[in-house]
Amino acid sequence: MALRIRLLGDPILRQKAKKIEIIDESLREIAKEMVGIMYSGDGVGLAAPQVGLSIRLIVVDIGDGWDAYINPEIIEKSDEIIVGEEGCLSIPEVFEEVPRPRWIKIKYQDFNGNYHEELKEDYAARVFAHEIDHLEGKLFIDYLSLAKRRLLMPKLNEIRRRSKVVSK
Ligand code: NI
């Protein structure tokens, strides 16, 4: 399968992704291909909608090797909010400060279909919250103030133009 990064402006990034019901070898192949794309873009996380697949799958590598998370969800989060810089492979060259819970508890399935619950803190919490947002059609720029978004508008519109050219 030849997957490629979808840029801001591609409608798939705004769709709610479908729950994965069948966990098989082809899903593992998709995850591996996503990891390759993530690494080549110097990313620390990638969600399936970003490569044109509207399914609830993310891959993450925040420095300790990659892992895939199937049907991930946030089941608990801290009231404490921390602001930190984020970027996104679907919104290249845009880096902005985004508020996120300091910790989140996530639930997901592995390739055997087994369920896991894990606590993610600080940077890890940010990465997972960002990727899980993608499955809801939410992007980090949605958290920015109107003023900030207005400032970014030319850059964002340029990405939207590129997105249209690529998809032809
Ligand atoms: Ni992203």
Profile the largest sheet.
Answer: 5 strands, antiparallel
Please list the strands of the largest sheet in the order they lie side by side: 1-2-3-6-7
Q: What is the CATH topology assignment?
A: Peptide Deformylase
Q: Over the alpha carbons, how many angstroms does the gyration radius reach?
A: 15 Å
The class by helix and strand makeup works out as alpha+beta
- Give the low-confidence spans: none
H/E series:
HEEEEEEEHH
How many beta-strand runs?
Answer: 7
Query: What molecules are bound to this protein?
Result: nickel (II) ion
Under CATH at level 1, the class stands as: Alpha Beta
Overall average residue pLDDT: 96
Beta strand %: 25-35%
Please tell me the CATH architecture by its name: Alpha-Beta Complex
